[in-house]
Amino acid sequence: MAGHFIASALVCVLPVLFFLAALQFLDSYKLVRIRDLLAVILAGVLTAVLGYALNAMVRRATSLDFDTFTRYVGPIIEELLKAAVVVALIRLRRIGFLVDAAIFGFATGAGFAVIENLFYLDLVPDAGFGTWVVRGFGTALMHGGATALFAVASLVLLEQRRSRWSALSLAPGFALAVVLHSAYNHLFLSPKAATLAVMIVLPVVFYLVFRRSECALGKWLGQGFDADAQMLELLDSGRFSDSPTGRYLRTMKDKFSGPAVADVLCYLRLHTELALRAKGILMMRESGFDVSVDEETRAKLEEMRFLERSIGKTGLRALRPVLHTTAKDEWQLGLLSE
Q1: DSSP state of 97
Q2: Which segments in the chain show pLDDT lower than 70?
């Protein structure tokens, strides 16, 4: 009996964790740090606990039967909770590319699935071993895959709109996650066939996501590195005031005091230097070197944050045409805060 329980627990938990470990290993740029990954798994665990309480409360309030609830209501509640973790990561500048969106999304779902499976194992420990194979290789991977697809779809749409907080950009990915979750719970196919479909389709989807992301990341690194280097060269050349950027900044003299304009120039230099440093770290990681952020870089980052407060929101908005403000460009500065 004890052996059956242990074997069932392992098959419930290990597949989704092994899949997550494989995703982390395949990330050649090492965009996701281990401590961040563990924190997100823990966040997924907490969403499972909260989801259990909310599901119980809503089911009592609606008096829906189990099948109807798990097919139409449960997926909405559970995907909403998992999506909240992903949105928080985007806001904290922890997600910038499709690869880390997929990994963090899957990690959230993995944490959720581990607790859910262990809960069901405790609830019905005498269920056949095949049940736990389906939950470990099917349901758990479905949870991770649905949240990963939400993260990837949302990031793509947010980048297209050049906005990080548009609800319209989040809605399609959320709807996709809910539909996939609900479809799995309907089990149009047999449980074993549904599990097999998840095991076949999910690796293909992640392969395509990783391939597209790494191509985009390599292109962004090359173009961004050249643009940042040119900006620094221009700032040091003595010809900055005659450049398009310099002419644009001169128009700000009528809106800001002399010291404020000086802060803007200092901020532009620091931002560019730190952007170059972040890209250099990524290039080193891709080559297999684990480079840490030095104290000088941390001091520059702190100085830049001070200048942001000094310039104010109005000044920073005025700088948007000059600085890169996409999710990727904001994410790279978050990389230096690790």
Answers
A1: S
A2: 1, 162-165, 188-189, 252-261, 324-327, 338
